[in-house]
Amino acid sequence: MTDSQDTAVAPRDQATGGPRRTLQVGETRYTLLGTAHVSAESASEVRALIDSGEFDAVAIELCDSRHQNLANPDALGEQDLFQIFRQGKAGMVAASLALGAFQQRLAEQSGIEPGAEMRAALEASRARRLPLMLIDRDVGVTLKRIYHNVPWWQRFSLFSGLLGGVLSRQDVSPDDIERLKEGDVLESTFSEFAAESETLYTPLIDERDRYMALRLAEQCPPGRYRHVLVVIGAGHLKGMAGHLERPLPEAPAAERQALEATPPPSRIWKALPWAITALVLTGFAIGFSRNTELGWQLVGEWFLINGVLSGAATLAALAHPLTVAATVVAAPLTSLNPTIGAGFVAAGVELAMRRPKVRDFATLRHDVTELKGWWRNRVSRTLLVFLAATLGSAAGTWIAGLRIAGALLGN
């Protein structure tokens, strides 16, 4: 790809709008507009620029899933919840809802819906029939790469950051709102950690700057567009402009796909459930070989501890009584079968007993902004049931396994 030339630089001007960078990359001119994600002025500025007729294409800092959520807020209601659990996406959906809860709190406090400038770009480009390019990386991929990139001892801090957005009923601080104006919901949620951790900053911000530059290179080959308006958060302006100013690969798809890859699970973690199953079954066999009474004692403790902890966890999630009973029975068995989890069984029964209604999907985004709403809404409660049963079964497996080991070693 040909070298770029920086043709204009403008700092933020409170009277005229956000910061801009205009770059000539080969035959294509890019105007990078740094927007504030909680700002009516940014939305108006985006509309005015698109309506000016100066641009023949628009690129925005959205991925397919975020675009779908913005264009169709009820998109989750059109998904099959059972398939979400089957595909192992329950945790990711719960994380997305937690992010949405933080976003909704900002909207209620500021009176402005975060992402208004992206919605303005969608509507204005559609009205003028301009091509629209989605250039950001999928939010799920970003969350996964964050999770895998940070040391295991920092992961609790990440989860607590998400959880805090749900549990806290305090007004969002002015500092948080200012950070959101310079970045996005992800950056605002994790900014406390990103500023101090390069392992978090890289997948959260730097990789996305590079990714969006590569997407532009892919979607804007020489001669396709004359002048492209690129609508991004102001926090991405400097990094993305830096990547465009330097030569990009002739075939950017390969590098872009590498930035989409998520590390495969460690062989140790993949083998661990099978190893635990083998150890527990071996413990039962050793117990029965010593005497029948010991064998049945170990089996009884396994079923009691695993079943009670899993059932108690689903009870805390206010699961249906039949869901709790099914989890108590299923958890000790699923813990010995790594191909199916107690959470999957619990969620399946809960969906059968309390299938979410249309109003649950309609009010989901608002309900999850407060803690009790997660239990009131049938969609979010089913997610809680899944997660609770999974965690309860995991705790039961370790505690019961240690009890078995202790009984055998003690004898």
TrEMBL record:
It comes from the Bacteria. It holds the Pfam family TraB_PrgY_gumN. CDD domains: TraB_PrgY-like (cd14726). InterPro entries: TraB/PrgY/GumN_fam, TraB_bac, TraB_PrgY-like. Keywords: Membrane, Transmembrane, Transmembrane helix. Residues 1-21 are annotated as: Disordered. The chain crosses the membrane at residues 271-290, 302-322, 328-349, 382-405. This is TraB/GumN family protein. It comes from Halomonas koreensis.
